[in-house]
Amino acid sequence: MTRALIIAPQWIGDAVMTEPLLRRLHRRGEQLTVGALPSVAPVYRAMPQVQEVIEFPFQHGGLQLRARRAISRQLEGRFDTAYVLPNSMKSALLPFLASIPRRVGYLGEARVGLLTQRLKNPKDRPPMVAFYSALSGDKEGLEQDRPHLQVPAAQLESALRAQGLQAGGYFVFAPGAEYGPAKRWPAIHFAELAKSLTHPVVLLGSAKEAPLCEEIAATAGEGRCIDLAGKTSLAQAFALIAGASAVVSNDSGLMHVAAAFGVPQVALFGSSSPLHTPPLNHRAQVIWLKQDDHYQPPLDCSPCFERECPLGHTRCLYDITPEAVLAALRDAPVAAA
Hints:
Number of domains: 2
Number of helices: 13
Strand content: 15-25%
CATH topology of the largest domain: Rossmann fold
Radius of gyration: 21 Å
Structural class: alpha/beta
Order of helices and strands: EHHEHEHEHEEHHEHEHEHEHEEHH
CATH architecture of the largest domain: 3-Layer(aba) Sandwich
Number of strands: 12
Strand order of the largest sheet: 3-2-1-4-5-6
Largest sheet: 6 strands, parallel
Helix content: 25-40%
């Protein structure tokens, strides 16, 4: 049996997109260990095909060569193959230092000598699932795979009990987006949508997004929202998403988490494109004004892929009305109102 080390990407959405690759590797008999930052480690603990998750003590940015050398000594002799998913030089350095014989990844930055098997980076923006799955060496059905995550029943029950919730008896809003405000639907719209729903709304996000969620909860009115931004672990947030009636989010990591759990969802796109990073979920409704034939005049500026609107109006998101999102929720297989 091949013992494989997976070097994970650093963002939640990217981590979710790697699940079909790991499923392919597991299916052909590879024994999988994932090395990941603590911020994405819970994603891999929700993948049954992963035997072990090693949390790397690295910080974002910086080579941190001493720490990488120390961990490489601990890993030496344990693995036959390493799959290096990020494109950075430092991510390929650890398997090299650990003397893992076969090291697979994309060319990336200054990695020719660090990898033994190198794929050329595609010129355009391919679907992320296919991008990662190509590292398996398989060529068939790369774009047909959909990520799948699982939460143990006990973990789900514990998360629901802690908040006094019943499975399917609440909605989840994930109003944040790490990349910037050009990917965030306005707080006032989230609040107006919360007022329209019969079930309570759970607000999820990081501690950075706590002020945003506080604003939504205050505007929606007392009793409409349970604000948990910055108050849950990522594993608890996953469980709350898995148990929700439906999820409303921007194009974010939690959008991909909801898709991987197969939860009914509405995904709101502004400066980014669902052609590149869609929620891979047959129960998802995507709202993107670029593709809305009823929206006139069309938004030629979208997608700009900028952190902030270069034109200063962010119409791509402001012009998505709460009524439109409510209608999309009603089109999903849930009782929204």
